């Protein structure tokens, strides 16, 4: 094959095809989540830190501080690659409580959020439930309305098993976020703080947001490197139900 | 051989012979290669030489299978215990060995050695992609999308120059697969996952580019590039059809298939006829069901699909006769 045999018009056509398709994908296909300001630069009062386990790759324990900083808990808090650990249960004076299902045992590990050291607080088959509103980790399913390219978010103020038909505003709760958002954007979990003043929101863009429950301020970005679907637990969340 | 390819291309361009005839001449001359000697006994000598290279190729592939099996066993047993440095060293060593072995054989004119070179270099490109994936995931610590983008791009970047030196199917596959993984992985870098239509569209574009580069003789063998590019483009539109713009994706895919058939008839290219036929038979029924399914019910839809497939088969049969008859008419 020589240079003379090669077709320059077809090479140019290949280049035009690349540019055209990339342009279509970038300008039409790619949607972006609503912009929010970082908590670190636009702070409001957040009552407590929040913890979660990131299971992308080797599991790791993370803590978001009220001042906007986000850190990985050092040491080896989850032990042995972290594969054995189940759900986050609570965060009280004993530490962050994690259900451990390793080696067929139901154990509760209490992890020190500062040092990463852990101790088993129960190894006799005890199970704990977190202070939940329907989802593990104290989370609740946010109520989302979409209309004319806008997303309206409310947090239910009480647990309801039925659908929203006929529910009054007191049950639904006030609007905590009203924003323009693409149809592909979703808030997948909401976890009210123990004092009820703020709600942590996990969205499908891998962001962790925090917003006051009275809707007085737009959400702030805690981190954009959170898992898309995770359990979150606030400090001060007590296990509400202990059963053998 | 290069001189022959050059002259054949000129003859096709000038309309002296068809591309189908050129391909057959090239194939015939390639079969006659390598001209080892002339004179009495040269046939037997050539036969011995061919047999020897075939045995060498078989031994090479057997060795490769054994090596891959050993690597697989090592990987399954040792891999979890290895630190990142050990993993990189192992993969890097395999890549360098494959690259070096291919380089050592690349000077050989025998087709068997050429094929083995292609396989070894393809393995080297895969090892390079693996190496990059480990670096991205373990050292740079990026997410799966960025890791896939890096690994895919590495496979393509390594495979394409080797492909230009030693054309062959394995390097085509690695380069093309790398480009597909890199393109779709890059789309995954955005925080919100786009509609599958756009993933499919990117894959189709990669296939289209490959097809055009093959058609334009920028990558060889031309037919392999055209077939793989065409199939990837059609597969991309099929993947795109799982998104919100299903009808548009299927329609676009069908247009590509029709284009391949038209080109096959125009250029006497039977391989394009096969690609186009495959696309038609896969995409047409889906499009009919999607467009008419709810309106006219399942039995009527099945009837339309059946009739259209019969029409498609008749049309393709006629196209095939056109393609087969063209060389005769040229003579």
Walk me through this protein's architecture.
The complex is a heterodimer of chains A (244) and B (331). Chain A is mainly beta and 244 residues long. Helix content of chain A is 11%, strand content 35%. In chain A, β5 and β6 (95-100) form a beta hairpin. Chain A is globular. The model of chain A is unreliable at 130-137, 159-164 and 166-170 (pLDDT under 50). Chain B is mostly helical and 331 residues long. Helices cover 84% and strands 0% of the residues of chain B. At the A-B interface, α1 of A face α1 and α8 of B.
List the helices and strands and how they pair.
The complex is a heterodimer of chains A (244) and B (331).
Chain A: H1 8-29, E1 37-38, E2 50-54, E3 60-64, E4 70-72, E5 85-92, E6 95-100, E7 107-111, E8 118-122, E9 127-129, E10 143-147, E11 150-154, H2 169-172, E12 175-180, E13 187-192, E14 198-203, E15 208-212, E16 220-223, E17 232-234, E18 241-243
Chain B: H1 2-13, H2 19-32, H3 42-78, H4 84-105, H5 111-139, H6 144-165, H7 169-187, H8 196-215, H9 222-240, H10 246-267, H11 270-330
């Amino acid at each position: 094959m020589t240079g003379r045999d090669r077709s320059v018009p077809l090479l140019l056509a290949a280049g035009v095809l690349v540019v055209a398709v990339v342009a279509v994908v970038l300008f039409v296909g790619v949607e972006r989540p609503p912009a929010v300001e970082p908590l670190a630069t636009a702070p409001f009062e957040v009552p407590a830190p929040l913890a979660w386990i990131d299971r992308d790759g080797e599991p790791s324990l993370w803590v978001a501080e009220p001042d906007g900083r986000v850190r990985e808990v050092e040491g080896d808090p989850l032990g042995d690659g972290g594969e054995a650990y189940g759900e986050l249960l609570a965060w009280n004076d004993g530490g962050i409580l994690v259900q451990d299902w390793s080696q067929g045992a139901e154990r509760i590990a209490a992890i020190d959020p500062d040092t990463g050291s852990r101790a088993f607080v129960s190894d006799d088959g005890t199970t704990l439930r977190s202070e939940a509103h329907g989802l593990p980790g104290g989370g609740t399913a946010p109520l989302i309305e979409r209309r004319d390219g806008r997303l309206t978010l409310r947090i239910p103020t009480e647990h309801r098993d039925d659908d929203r038909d006929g529910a009054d505003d007191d049950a639904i709760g006030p609007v905590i976020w009203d924003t323009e958002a693409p149809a592909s954007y979703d808030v997948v979990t909401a976890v009210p703080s123990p004092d009820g003043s703020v709600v942590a929101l996990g969205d499908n863009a891998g962001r962790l947001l925090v917003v006051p429950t009275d809707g007085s301020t737009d959400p702030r970005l805690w981190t954009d490197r959170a898992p898309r679907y995770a359990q979150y637990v606030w400090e001060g969340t007590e296990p509400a139900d202990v059963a053998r | 051989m290069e001189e022959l390819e050059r002259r054949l291309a000129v003859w096709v361009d000038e309309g002296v012979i068809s591309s189908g005839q050129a391909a057959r001449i090239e194939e015939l001359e390639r079969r006659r290669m390598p001209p080892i000697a002339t004179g009495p006994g040269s046939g037997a000598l050539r036969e011995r030489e061919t047999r020897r290279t075939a045995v060498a190729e078989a031994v090479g592939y057997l060795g490769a299978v054994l090596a891959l099996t050993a690597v697989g066993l090592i990987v399954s047993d040792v891999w979890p215990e290895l630190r990142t440095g050990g993993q990189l060293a192992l993969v890097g060593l395999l890549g360098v060995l494959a690259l070096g072995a291919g380089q050592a054989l690349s000077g050989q004119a025998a087709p068997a050695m050429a094929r083995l070179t292609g396989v070894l270099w393809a393995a080297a490109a895969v090892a390079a992609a693996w190496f990059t994936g480990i670096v991205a995931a373990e050292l740079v610590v990026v997410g799966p999308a960025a890791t896939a983008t890096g690994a895919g791009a590495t496979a393509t970047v390594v495979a394409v120059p080797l492909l230009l030196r030693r054309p062959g199917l394995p390097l085509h596959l690695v380069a093309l697969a790398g480009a597909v993984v890199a393109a779709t992985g890059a789309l995954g870098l955005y925080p919100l996952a786009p509609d599958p239509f756009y993933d499919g569209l990117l894959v189709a574009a990669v296939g289209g580019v490959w097809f055009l580069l093959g058609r334009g003789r920028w990558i060889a063998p031309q037919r392999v590039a055209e077939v793989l590019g065409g199939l990837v483009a059609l597969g991309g539109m099929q993947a795109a059809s799982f998104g919100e713009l299903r009808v548009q994706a299927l329609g676009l895919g069908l247009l590509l298939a029709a284009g391949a058939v038209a080109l096959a008839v125009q250029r006497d290219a039977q391989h394009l006829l096969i690609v186009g036929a495959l696309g038609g038979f896969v995409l047409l029924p889906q499009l009919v069901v999607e467009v008419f399914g709810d309106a006219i019910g399942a039995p009527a839809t099945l009837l339309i699909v059946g009739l259209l497939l019969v029409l498609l088969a008749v049309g393709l049969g006629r196209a095939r006769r056109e393609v087969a008859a063209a060389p005769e008419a040229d003579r």
